[in-house]
Amino acid sequence: MKQLTEPELKALMLLSLDGDEAAYRCLLEMLRHLLESYYTRRLYRSASADVEDLVQETLLALHQRRITYDRGRPFTAWFFTIARHKLVDHHRRTGGRSYLGLEMVEDMVDAYSEDAIAAGMDVDRLLKSLPAWQGEMIRDVRLKGHSVAETAASSGRSEAMVKISVFRGIQAMAAKLKGEGK
Predict the structure, then answer these.
(1) Do the beta carbons of residue 23 and residue 12 sit within 8 Å?
(2) Is 0.70 surpassed by the pTM of this model?
C-alpha cells in the first residue's frame, strides 16, 4: 500500500472535516497502516494486541479531537503528537513492562514534525523555482542519494552536465534565499 504524503493526508483530513465520509474512511485506513508500523517499531517486544489497542485508541482520539485541528497547520505533526501521547500513556499504564527506549520517545515524530514538514515544503518550493529537469537532478543526487552516474543515465545527460546542473541549481536556490533571486 502506498504511503501518503503530508499534503495528501491533510487534504483527506480537510475533506473529512467538510463532511466527506469517503475521505474520512480513506484517511482512517491510511492512518491505521501508518500507526501499525509506527507502534510496531516502537513496541517490538510487546504483544501485537498492544499495537492493535494503541492503533484503536489513537484513531478514537483522532475522531474525538478532529474538531480541534487547525487547518493552517501540518496535519501529520498534529496527528503524530496524539500518537506519541498515546504511546507514552501506554508505557505508563504498563509500568514499563513494554519496551520503549528513551531514544524512541525523543525521535517519535521524526519525519512528521512540523519543522521537518515546513523545511520539506520550503525545499519543494525552491526546487519548483528551477527548471523541472534541474530540480529533478538535485532531488535525485542530493535528496535521494543517487550517484551522479545513476542520475546521468536516467536523465540521458552526461555526468559533467549533472554535476554542473546540480551545482548551479543549488547556487540559484541559495541566491533566492538571500533575496538575490528574481
Answers:
(1) yes
(2) no
Instruction: State the Cα–Cα distance between residues 157 and 150, nearest whole angstrom.
Output: 10
Q: What share of the chain in percent tops pLDDT 90? A: 27
For the segment 136-153, what is each residue's pLDDT rounded down to a tens digit? 998 888 877 888 898 899
User: Nearest-5° angle of CA 51, CA 52, CA 56?
Assistant: 120
Residue 132 and residue 24: Cα distance in Å, rounded? 34
CATH class name, domain 6-109: mainly alpha
- What residue spans of 18-158 are helical by DSSP H? 21-42, 48-65, 75-93, 102-106, 114-128, 132-138, 148-155
Question: Which of helix, strand or coil describes residue 109?
Answer: coil
Distance CA 35, CA 174 (A): 37
69 CB contacts (<8 Å, ≥6 apart)?
A: 13, 17, 75, 78
Residue extents of the structural domains in the chain:
6-109, 129-177
* Domain covering 129-177, topology: Arc Repressor Mutant, subunit A (1.10.10)
Q: State the cell numbers at 85.
A: 501521547
